[in-house]
Input
Amino acid sequence: MPESGLRQRKKQRTREAIAAAAAALFAERGYENVAVTDVAHAADVSEQTVYNYFPTKERLVLDSDDEFLARLTTRVAQRAPGSSPAAALRPEAVALLDRMATIPAEQARGGLAYLVAVSPAVRRLSLEISDRHAAAVAGIIAAAPDGPGPHLARIQATALVAVFQLIIDEAGRRLVAGEVPAQIAAALRPVAAAALDSLDGWLNSPPPASTVPASTVPDGRSRG
Output
């Protein structure tokens, strides 16, 4: 294997080791009670190495957020003609729940869903990230040739992203209540499907025809 490939694999292993150490500590102590130095010690790396891979403590919780956002925007941008953004995002919701179902119960306590439920700081962070996702998806929706104006696009995108926020919030609540990830994923699949089906119907419906007030004529002059 070329030396560059070996370096990349080593970097990926280091990144995964740091992320795993952080998740284990968050599960054991809670997000607020873990410092970056603790993560470095648990991962057997220097504190600077942690910062090289995760510039802030928050990024240790949101390790895959950039990739997730890229998938959301790509699915919406590359959706088939006549397909709504809700239909385009359905596979991403299914994939999120499929991944959730495979997480060991003890590991889930260090993940985003559980931390959102028990940590006000992570809850705020999650809502900020959802707002960023909505803004990005809104830009894609508004840029389509037949897209709505920016304000309606933002409303549509906010509703779409809210489905994923609901999955995270409800998963966290159920984890705290003692349910296991596979059980939670099974319960949330029909919930997510129903929400996206409803949004699909809304986004595929034709816009209402504009109306002209009865007190005016087409040129806008008042009658009488």
Remarks:
- Confidence is low (pLDDT under 50) at residues 210-217, 220-224.
